[in-house]
Amino acid sequence: MTTDYFTSPTGNRLAFDVMPPQSGRPTVIWLSGYRSDMAGGKAQAVKSWAWETGHGAVLFDYSGHGESEGRFEDGTILAWRTDVLAAIDQLSVGPVVLVGSSMGGWLALLAALARPERVKGLVLVAPAPDFTEKLMWPDLTPAQQEEVMATGVTLRPSAYGTPDPITRNLIEDGRKWQILDAPIVFDGPVRILQGMQDADVPWTHAMELNERLTSDNTVLTLIKDGDHRLSRDEDVNRLIAACADVCGLLRRQEATVGAPQIKPSLHDA
User: Fold this and answer.
1) pLDDT tens-place values along the chain, 269 residues long
2) Known catalytic residue: 102?
3) Quick one: how far is CA 6 from the chain centroid?
4) pTM of the entire structure?
């Protein structure tokens, strides 16, 4: 399969896969987690569901991820947020639903705040807003924290492969984009899936996010035996059901708004 690319304002050519929606259906945009990419199982499952149901789908790799240009070590929340906004602006039209996993959940929230006229719904899987400051930094040893500040980077062992390079730029930039310390103003439907056996993002983090979101149409699902990836068949089924729920709700809302208003007759008074 030939990989398509678009250029982000970060200056990197980003790999992407786009499928336009049928008329009247929103587009789902997949936002991967830290060091993940669009080739993952959950991303492909969302794409397959969109294909089967006539919804649009946008999958892409952030700078320094997957098949995109750039060094991962140069990445920051600002840079990856810029990539997300470019994907929304350049690769999609009409209403979008952002489907964000882990770090992608943070980026989805930041993008929803930046593009309220475009982002109409959110589906978040083990969302990790503020993770660089509230989860990653406290998890480093004092020696690792000192190494980050003195040399600019430390390597943290990872359960998912090679060690994670944690950079000073990532930590310091992440502090500027924290959102959990104030209300998160978003009025669209939100569905959150969170495993209670998640070793990377504790389920209490999702509870805090739930409290901060202003949308009354927010549903938090806690999965007692679920881990961070939530990639089992039953977890993927929950993800697809959440996408269908949010997209279906948006379509019904659009139909209601677009329907002609019938004035009551005198006999109805």
Assistant:
1) 568 999 999 999 999 999 999 988 999 999 999 999 999 999 999 999 999 999 999 999 999 999 999 999 999 999 999 999 999 999 999 999 999 999 999 999 999 999 999 999 999 999 999 999 999 999 999 999 999 999 999 999 887 778 999 999 999 999 999 999 999 999 999 999 999 999 999 999 999 999 999 999 999 999 999 999 999 999 999 999 999 999 999 999 888 865 444 444 333 43
2) yes
3) 19
4) 0.93
Q: What is the CA radius of gyration of the chain?
A: 19
The single residue listed with the structure tokens 């949308």 is 215
- Catalytic pick from 55, 83, 102, 173? 102
How far is residue 96's CA from residue 109's CA, in Å, rounded to a whole number? Answer: 13
Q: Which CATH class is domain 4-131+183-252?
A: alpha beta
Active-site annotation holder among 61, 130, 173, 198: 198
Every domain of the chain and the residues it spans: 4-131+183-252
Assess whether 55 carries a catalytic annotation: no
Token pair, residue 3, equals: 């990989």
